[in-house]
Design a protein that fits this description.
With 314 residues, this protein is α+β, with helices and mostly antiparallel strands. It has one domain: Clam (outer membrane lipoprotein receptor (LolB), chain A), CATH 2.50.20.20. The chain has 8 helices and 12 strands. The longest helix has 20 residues.
Length: 314
């Protein structure tokens, strides 16, 4: 499965649930529209997933009780042939400016670069964090995380395959299929122009109580970890998707409120697929410039009782 397909999994999660309305002189029934929509979504998944690459722009906003709104902007390029991609990140946490007597203000606006390969992530340490992180990484400008190591560290080997073997990191095709299987309702909203491209906008709701279309091991991991994170209170996720006349996904957008012990946390995500086609393969950092996080995670995972939760916490 292509790496061009990989980033989009999390991002393409909303597409599968969306059905495209049937065309014709007579008004189709709800069941007919659903069947037609499912077939069209499958076609959109195949067409988008078969691209030689994709360039994306994504924004994630999380409004936490403690820090207020946090925003992550991500500009990505993914190459199918090399199964590699690169994301330029901008992380804004304005709430830090008022904490610590202003001493944390320098961490309120961070930038980084993330290089993705089929089995590893390479992250450039933000310059503002270098003095702190450098104490543990030998002042290396990059850190590396192996997905296989992540699975072992969390104590859930299937979690590594969830991110790697199941292509969940960047594959819009898989997300389309999963969401199509879990959609509770589908509605055509209208036509809109997205990034200069004419599209049709659809809205759907994904039923998290089903979790269909997943491998048993992956489904077990997600069910357990969602429950640990308090997301078991969230049973339905609204999704919007914009698809152009060439059956290419152009935008996916979702928003929901996650309930946890610390309170309600509104989360929104939007990803624009700006261009399909071959993208340049990123040049990975030299080994001498990279610190492998695997041993460090294993150490702290052991101190936490041998396991670290994939969604946070021990």
């Amino acid at each position: 499965m292509s790496s061009a397909r990989q980033l989009s999994t999390g991002c393409a999660a909303g597409v599968a649930a969306l059905g495209l309305g049937a065309c014709g002189s007579s008004k189709p029934s709800a069941s007919q529209s659903a069947k037609t929509g499912a077939a069209t979504i499958q076609q959109a998944a195949n067409v988008s997933g078969a691209a030689k690459g994709v360039r994306t722009a994504q924004t994630i906003t999380v409004n936490t009780p403690a820090l207020g709104a946090m925003t992550v902007d991500a500009a990505g390029k993914f190459n199918a042939a090399s199964k590699q991609g690169q994301i330029n990140l901008g992380i804004k946490i304005p709430g830090l400016k008022s904490l610590g007597g202003g001493r944390l203000a320098k961490y309120s606006n961070l930038t980084s670069t993330l290089d993705i390969t089929p089995g590893d992530f390479y992250a450039k340490v933000p310059s503002e964090l270098a003095p702190v992180v450098g104490k543990y990484t030998g002042n290396k400008p990059w850190v590396k995380l192996s997905l296989a190591t992540l699975g072992k560290t969390t104590g859930v080997p299937a979690f590594g395959s969830l991110l790697q073997g199941s292509n969940s990191t960047t594959d819009p095709t898989q997300a389309l299929k999963i969401l199509d299987a879990n959609a509770k309702s589908v509605k055509k909203v209208g036509t809109e122009t997205i990034d200069g491209v004419a599209t049709t906008h659809y809205h759907a709701v994904m039923d998290l109580t089903k979790l269909k279309g997943l491998k048993p091991a992956v489904k077990k991991v997600l069910s357990q970890e969602l429950a640990k994170a308090g997301q078991n209170h969230m049973t339905a996720v609204p999704e919007d998707v914009w698809i152009d006349n060439a059956n290419l996904v152009r935008r996916i957008k979702s928003s929901q409120t996650v309930q946890s012990q610390s309170g309600s946390t509104p989360v929104s995500m939007q990803i624009d697929f700006l261009a399909y086609g071959a993208q340049p393969t990123p040049k990975l950092p030299a080994a001498s410039q990279v610190f492998d996080l695997g041993p460090l995670l294993a150490k702290y995972g052991h101190q936490a009782g041998g396991q670290m939760s994939p969604l946070g916490g021990a």
